[in-house]
Amino acid sequence: MTRKTLNIAIAATLLGSLALVGCKKKQDDAAMTPPPATTEPATTPETTPPPAPAPAAATASVGSVDLGNAVGADMKVAAASATFKPKDTIYASVATTTSDATATVPGKLAAKWSFQDGQVVNEESKDVNLSGAGTTEFHIAKPDGFPAGKYKVEISLDGNVVQSKDFEVK
Q: Most CB atoms closer than 10 Å: which of 34, 41, 65, 72?
């Protein structure tokens, strides 16, 4: 074979290969063509809607405070009163509720009892898990009797005074 014939054979082989690869490439491109675009617009930071807000956490609140000298099994005072005898046990029945009746809200309820001159008679706090409507009881007692005079109880929820009641011992 002559050199010219060899060059022509190599050139023909190369051209044939290129033609074959070119055809193959077009077939692969057709197979890899993505499906047509949907009609939904593309989202961008400007058009992306903000995420839905997270549900608000449930909260607890004190509804009322009743004073009396006896409570029932439900921790509610049997008969509300604002006047007591020196040897009475004095109860504060604290009604609470949560914004979501199915949620449990941890908190700290406290009662601060004070005499008319501001002297603190007693302080007590309770860690509570409040759920729906509920009642928590606080009380003070003095076996030898409270001095006659005006008193006050302040009820706090998580460190904030939410209710106060004045009462008298006669």
A: 65
Whether residue 29 has pLDDT greater than 60: no
Look at residue 3 and tell me whether its pLDDT is greater than 80. Answer: no
All structural domains of the chain: 60-169 (2.60.40.10)
Q: What is the mean pLDDT of the chain?
A: 84
Partner residues linked to 129 by β-bridges: 106
End-to-end CA distance of the chain: give it in Å, rounded. Answer: 135
